Amino acid sequence: MSYIAVDIESDGPIPGDFSMVCFGAVLVDEHLDKTFYGKLKPISGNFNPDALAVSGFTREETWDFDDPKEVMLNFAAWIEENSKGRPVFISDNNGFDWMFICWYFHHFTGRNPFGFSSRRLADLYCGLEKDTFAQWKHLRKTAHTHHPVDDARGNAEVLLYMKNEMGLKIALK
What we know:
Elements: E1 2-10, E2 20-27, E3 35-39, H1 49-55, H2 59-62, H3 68-82, E4 87-91, H4 94-109, E5 119-120, H5 121-129, H6 148-166
C-alpha cells in the first residue's frame, strides 16, 4: 500500500455545484519528493468569493486553468506510476478533500484509483495519543500556506513523524 497525502482548494462547499480550484498530492515516503499539482478550470458558474480567496487565485485566473478531465486523467496516471499496491488517500480533512477528489474522479474518468475509502490524519494522531482533543498541526515542518502541495507535504511529514517517533505501525511503499 502506498499512502498519498492530498489537499484541495475549492471555490465552495461541495463538488458539482462548486469547483475544485487546485489540489496537490505527495507520495508519503522518506523523501517526500514525488508530488502532483493540478489547477482546474471551473465546472460551474457558482463560486463563493471567500472560499476562492483561500486559494489565492481570482475567478478570472481560474478560467485559464486546465481542463478537469485532463487533470484527473494525469493524476490517475501519476498515482499508477508512483504507488505500489493499493493507493491510500490521506488528508487532514478527508471529509472535504476526499469528496472533491472522489467526485471529480468518478465524474471525469469513471473511476477513483483510491477506491471507496480514505484516512484522516488527525484521527490517527488522536488514536495514538488516546485523546480525541490532541493537537497535531505543530508537527508539520512545511508551513501551511494553502498551496495544496505545501499543505499535503506538511501532512505527510506528520504521518512520517507518527511512524518514526510514535510507533505507528504503517507500511509505506
